[in-house]
Structure to design on (271 residues):
């Protein structure tokens, strides 16, 4: 997949692009089997929440080795559809993955993500310039009832706001202050929900404001996030960096893999 110049201009203007059904049903099926497998792993990279200790986040699925490594998610992150789109949106062919995470929201209990900019945290990781983008793929149908993500168009042009720490869920998150959010929402276009069938995807800029609500439905929600960054803009050395699974030090440029990589990984896993 090669984005058109109009799509790249749209990303620059709005801060995001939507891709209905970017991954096929067959590919989603493989990725969901991997989701089930990794969610049973006991690791600090698997964050749980709620009465039933359901999974909220699984980190670092994209690497070749490691407790949560998944060949199928690794293959997904390197498809032309994903990696080439990130290269085009960031106007740079030399990208690495700052992190990958698979966000679950368990039926009834899965918690919200308050409005935030990802660059709130990534700036504190020692990254100077906000030129990062995340490709996210929904692995279950995304609806307002099950806590789909919303984005605020054009908000990436507002610069980085001064955040506050939200400790209301199992994963502490730097979020946008309420007074700032009210101001942005008065001035900017209405939030856009990232809805659609499993396999639908979106790429969004690291300063784009986004959020998602509680999962009020009876089905678990799953959504993968691949966060791409320019090799040349890699983080400065820090005294106390966050763990490698959220602030990767694998700064080797990524290369595009086969388009059928997810299906091939699925066959290997089943063998
Ligand atoms: C995030 O913004 O990092 C997560 C949003 C979601 O999983 O809905
Ligand atoms: Mn985010």
């Amino acid at each position: 997949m090669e984005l058109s110049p109009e799509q790249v201009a749209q990303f620059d203007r709005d801060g995001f692009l939507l891709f209905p059904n970017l991954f096929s049903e067959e590919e989603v099926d493989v990725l969901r089997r991997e989701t089930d497998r990794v969610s049973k792993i006991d690791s600090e990279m698997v964050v749980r929440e709620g009465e039933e200790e359901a999974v909220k986040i699984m980190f670092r699925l994209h690497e070749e080795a490691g407790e949560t490594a998944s060949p199928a998610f690794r293959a997904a992150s390197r498809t032309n559809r994903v990696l080439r789109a990130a290269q085009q949106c960031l106007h740079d062919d030399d990208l690495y993955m700052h992190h990958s995470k698979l966000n679950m929201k368990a039926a009834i209990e899965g918690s919200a993500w308050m409005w935030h900019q990802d660059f709130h945290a990534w700036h504190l990781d020692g990254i100077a310039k906000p030129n990062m983008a995340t490709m996210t793929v929904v692995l279950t149908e995304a609806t307002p009832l099950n806590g789909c993500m919303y984005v605020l168009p054009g908000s990436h042009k507002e610069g980085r706001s001064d955040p506050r720490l939200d400790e209301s869920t199992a994963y502490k998150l730097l979020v946008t202050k309420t007074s700032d959010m009210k101001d942005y929402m008065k001035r900017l276009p209405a939030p856009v929900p990232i809805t659609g069938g499993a396999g639908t995807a979106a790429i969004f800029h690291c300063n784009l404001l986004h959020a998602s609500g509680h999962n009020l439905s009876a089905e678990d929600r799953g959504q993968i996030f691949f966060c791409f960054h320019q090799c040349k803009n890699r983080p400065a050395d820090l005294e106390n960096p966050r763990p490698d699974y959220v602030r990767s030090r694998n700064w080797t440029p990524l290369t595009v893999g086969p388009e059928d990589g997810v299906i091939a990984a699925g066959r290997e896993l089943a063998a």
In short: The two ends are 30 Å apart (CA to CA). The chain has a mean pLDDT of 97.
